[in-house]
Amino acid sequence: MAKSYSRVGIKRDNNFSDIADPKKALNNLLDRVGTDIPGGTFISEDLDAIRGLFATGLSAGEYRAFGGSTVVETDTLGATRAAVPAITYQNRLDTFKINSGVFPRLNGGNGLTANYFNSDQVKFNTEEDVFVGVTTGPSIPSDNFWEKGNFVYSRKINKQSVNAAGGAQWDGFFVPTQTGQYTFTSSSTLGFTVDFEAEGYTTGINTFRKVARVGLTTTITSGTFSISRSASDDTVTVTGTGASKVGAGIGVGMTVISSSSSTGIIANSKVSGVSTNTSPESLVITFENQDTDPIPLNGSLTSLELGRPAGTSASNSYTTYTLEKFRPYRIRYRFFVPEDVDPRGIEKNAQFLFLTPGSQSSAYLRYNNLYSLDYDFSDEVEGTFNKFLRQSILFGGNKDDGTETIGSISNATNYVRVSTDKKVDIKYEPKTTLAQVERTSKSSVSWSSGSKIISLSDTTDIEIGNYVFSSTQGLTANINTPVRVTDVIINTFIVIDTPTTNARTNQTLTFVNHRGFVKRVTASAGGFGTNINITNSDTTPATEGLRTGQLAIYNGGSAYTGITTFGSTTQVNQFPAPTFSNRRVYFYESRGLIDKALATFCVPAETQCFLVSSNVVAGSTVLPVSTSTANIQVGYRVLGFPFADGTSVLSKTSNSLTLDTATAKNIAADSNFTATSSADDKSLCCPPTDTSPPFAPTEAGLETTPDNLNLKIKQGNLVFSNLIVNGSGNVTALDTTITHSSANTLPILCGDGVTYDLFCE
Fold it and tell me: For residue 410, what pLDDT is reported?
């Protein structure tokens, strides 16, 4: 039977190719299989989801690893079952993409941009950029092929290269995942270079610092440098401008070809270490020799030649300045066959490793740490997780300059409302003394230009969020412009939010409490009436950011001393009148929750607040005032419940205002009112401290005043939880057959759908 079936039946090996309609034949077979769904079918189209899938690279054990990975859910009865609809791996990948972004930022790199060059473009011996000119061979397209930084070429560097020579250049970004110093180690059997972003780089030229430029040989002569050797520690020290550049050309593993003295350094001694110093600029090379002492004598040298055969590995290490986490830094690697080397029969490889802060051993620099030149780091394509980190309130609080805000302050459609269903616990306490403001000072501090890292051996009393001021210009362009502490590495360094403007040494830094901080100025008082005169500020006008009610804190100042702004660009008012010479003055908020909704409505140049210092009876025209009247002008309208419409200032003294119309109501001491030159109602600019009018305050609550017992409702609704009617009569239903003396009624809604009418006189 088997023999007969093989002749006339459908052979499995032919995969339905031996029949006229393979799809129909498959459906006939599948239909026999059936389905668990009543009335359902199982046809060829049901297999479209798995068509094109292959098991390439997957073992049986790897397939079994997928077992039990179905997303399950618990129904209302407590039973656990597969989620409906099913959540596929693609669904999960899509969710991951939403969270991480189309262009992931955290360990989500795609590798560096790679460009390839033919042998006629390698000019290492004559050109700084190594690869120059137009090749006579074919143009080789770029890619971003980078796995783990371990490249081994058995033949051509690129399959489209003219021959086995030439080279490759990788460009892009390195993004650290933690703040600190990183060490990059590169090695190769042929030539290689390493460039890393220069410290303080922003835009424009001089992007890179040339870290390594290692070929097969390098020569050092005393015509440019001072060269000395030490027999005690087997080192050679090279001193002079450009010594670090010489060090970039030396690879660990090179050997001594020759020196100026036959007994200076033993030939074939190997370089075991290279280190550079910047101040003064110098290079220290350490040697070793398995057979003898590499440096038998002390003394100076006039020349030193180092080299290695092609195919012999050499390495170079570079420790970066302190890098900030999540910030992209430019990086560039090159690997090439030097122009005078025949690569046939020579091993061609290159390795790139890095050491993270706190790690004990280096690891290969994988592609996920590196990003191509065209990688999109814009906010528009970032994932929800990155957006959360960027827009979250920082540990030390956010700045109020627009650079650290929640939501957009310019695009109303993108503005984010902050809401909570819990109480807001504000623990802010207004500062009262200079000691509460200036937390600590650190002396003998130095930093480089364009850096966000400041080394400190003592970080005591410094916390994230603190503002930092320098004793001289250099930290910022103005001594009253602060920077912000964003990270603290205990007794090592701090990270600030803004790059330094200039390099400085031996400076004093003052760390200021950031809670409630508004700004710092240099100012004087005395001879300006009750005003503080600002002589230096980091803003124009100098009073920008200052508002009435803020506190002025300085050496010798009284606690809780508030200010009043009046539209001046250089002065603010303080009462009683202060007197002090040129000194730093800090301004802080007087409360923890600041309402800025009326900031653009209540302009100090046209609106001023004043406090009545004692009780004033109705019918008075003179108001005793406890705040300064310097910026209240004659003719200003006075707004508030006790004043008739159109009441204005007739005259003034330093502590009183005379009105052109007598007051209509009694005024309690410390009541707050508004004086303005604007025709608009500016009474909200100075909220009243007495909120009882038009009612009289009692221990039981508010009541109508004795002279106005009749309550009139002009418009709107008055809501009662209880209505009590005191009188000799009863409340009865209205008899509509009787003629009444009034046609006025008060409709009352009691929640039962019926409108009741209270008959009114």
Answer: 52
